[in-house]
Amino acid sequence: MTQFEMDPRFAQATTFIADWPVCRVLLAEDARYPWLQLLPRCGFVTELLDIPREQRLLLMEEIALACEAVKKIQPDCKLNIGTLGIIVPQMHIHVLGRTPGDPAWPGPVWGHQSEAMVYDEKTREFRVAIVRSLSPKG
Amino acid sequence: MTQFEMDPRFAQATTFIADWPVCRVLLAEDARYPWLQLLPRCGFVTELLDIPREQRLLLMEEIALACEAVKKIQPDCKLNIGTLGIIVPQMHIHVLGRTPGDPAWPGPVWGHQSEAMVYDEKTREFRVAIVRSLSPKG
Question: Using CA of residue B4, residue B9, residue B68, residue A66, what is the dihedral sign?
Fold first, then answer.
């Protein structure tokens, strides 16, 4: 791993959960969705193609693990996975759960104009603990 | 591979490009964006977690190859990758190129209310040929 610096905007809008072999795992500060963000830590990455093949394969397994975590938090959700990088260029992969009737349904959460819901401490800790209970085979 | 049946909505809105080891590769019928869709062919898949690990790793390489293809079509683009599956449940991974000033910029193309631009035959064939010139190591 080369040096890893996180765009300060992530610190404002997320809670740190863990550093997995390839990615930093963050909880998006919006209690309306079980929503993780994975930041590849191999230097400053903006595109999937910046990541060497070997780490890309580990990344896929980390994305799958994040999917498992979201499903544990909200078993009946539909997973949405996406990486856009237009507003915040540093590569981050969103993995989140959607349910009928959520504020952005059936559209994407990205670009949806509505206010995030602040977490109560207990719910945030519950979600963080679920993600921490899973660990990549790395 | 078990049987693979494609939701008829894809045939309406895309052009067939190729069958790669894991995915069927389609060109979205919207000339405004270099836009591919990858449909995993391992049975009826709605979530990444439905795909066995070994094929998931091949899928990552096919996504990376689709990224390369989009970058060949439009070198200065920002890649967007996403899978949502709320409107059309059959899993399909969007890989497309964005440029400042495109109709949905800086929002996501998913859920953006605007009319697709019909391809002229030559541009469609050019894009299809670029994707076909790349092949996965499988």
Answer: negative
Strand pairing report for A23-28 and A35-40: antiparallel
Nearest Cα residue to A67 out of B33, B51, B66: B51
User: What are the tens digits of pLDDT across the range A108-137?
Assistant: 999 999 999 999 999 999 999 999 999 887
- End-to-end CA distance of chain A, in Å? 14
ipTM above 0.95, yes or no: yes
* Interface residues of chain B, partner chain A, Cβ below 8 Å: 46-49, 53, 56-57, 59-61, 63-64, 67-68, 71, 78-87, 98, 105-108, 110-111
In chain B, which residues have their Cβ closer than 8 Å to the Cβ of A57? 57, 60-61
Name all domains of chain A by residue range, CATH numbers in brackets: 8-132 (3.30.428.10)
Does pTM top 0.80 for this prediction?
Answer: yes
Q: Do A56 and B61 touch (CB under 8 A)?
A: yes
